[in-house]
Amino acid sequence: MNGLRLAVSWLTVLPVRGPDEVDRGAAGKAIGWAPVVGALLGVGAAGLLWVLGAMGGSWLLAGLVAVAGLTLITRGMHIDGLADTFDGLGSYGSPERAREIMKSGGAGPFGVAALVFAIGIQAVSFAALAETGRWAAVVLAVAVGRIAVVLACGRGIEAAPGAGFGALVAGTQGSAVRLLWGGIALGAASFVTEHWWLGPIGVGVALAASMVLVRHCVRRFGGLNGDVLGAALEIAVTVVAVVLTFGV
């Protein structure tokens, strides 16, 4: 269970301590457990939406608070990665220059725009799903974001020069674990909307979009880093949430 403990300690602020020493083997196991952490976070987001709705709050406000809650419990590292990645992609310099921009700590126009659209779209989508009682759809959207991370760390993906977290997890996930989580997500997605085909389409499009982003970033930045994983996660959550609202 060290992999699950490490995944929780990495991906949340919950007071769970991982192993004292972390090598690529331990890091790979933690990434393999990431979707389980995502499902737990999704349950928490759905519960928060339900509580705010039961208290008479507007669904849009509930959606914004749920996104804020996810941001807080994950230390904001995923949305930070989203902003840094789009700032890097928005630069016209070399891969080295793009990586420097990503590490600068500031947020440029491309990063700010990405944040505004991702947070806004997720909040509105969560609100629409919660208003019609599609709690499982919210859980699925958050979990699929973590499945995107598993796929992004597949064999053959190299870490970017100077990457810290990326060097630990890039290329650690075999085909079996990627197919397992992808299949679970596609199967579960059939039950979260009235139209059984809509959920799998949403999951498929979300994972495809996140992988296109990852592949492009690997070429653009010279490899994978933690920021790109955060961006892939947020893109996947956003796409799934949007597509599932079509069946509301």
Overall structural class, as computed from helix and strand content, comes to mainly alpha
What is the H/E string?
Answer: HHHHHHHHHHHH
Average residue pLDDT: 94
Main sheet properties: none
Radius of gyration: 17 Å
What gap, in angstroms, lies between the N and C termini? Answer: 38 Å
- Please state roughly what percent of the residues sit in beta strands, choosing from under 5%, 5-15%, 15-25%, 25-35%, 35-45% or over 45%: under 5%
Runs in which pLDDT lies below 50 for 5 or more consecutive residues are none
Percent of residues in helices comes to over 70%
Identify the overall geometry: globular
Count the beta strands.
Answer: 0
Query: If helices are DSSP runs of H or I spanning 4 or more residues, what is the number of helices?
Result: 12
What does the model show?
This protein is an all-alpha fold and 248 residues long. The protein contains twelve helices and no strands. The longest helix has 24 residues, at 198-221.
Describe the structure using short key phrases.
mainly alpha; single chain; 12 helices; 73% helix; 248 residues
Short structural summary:
By secondary structure, this protein is mainly α. The chain has helices at about 1-10, 25-30, 35-55, 60-75, 75-90, 95-105, 110-130, 135-150, 165-170, 175-190, 200-220, 225-245.
Secondary-structure map:
Blueprint: H1 2-11, H2 24-32, H3 34-54, H4 59-73, H5 77-89, H6 95-103, H7 109-131, H8 135-152, H9 165-169, H10 175-189, H11 198-221, H12 226-245
Helix pairs in contact: 1-2, 3-4, 3-7, 3-8, 4-7, 5-6, 5-7, 5-12, 7-12, 8-10, 8-11, 8-12, 10-11, 11-12
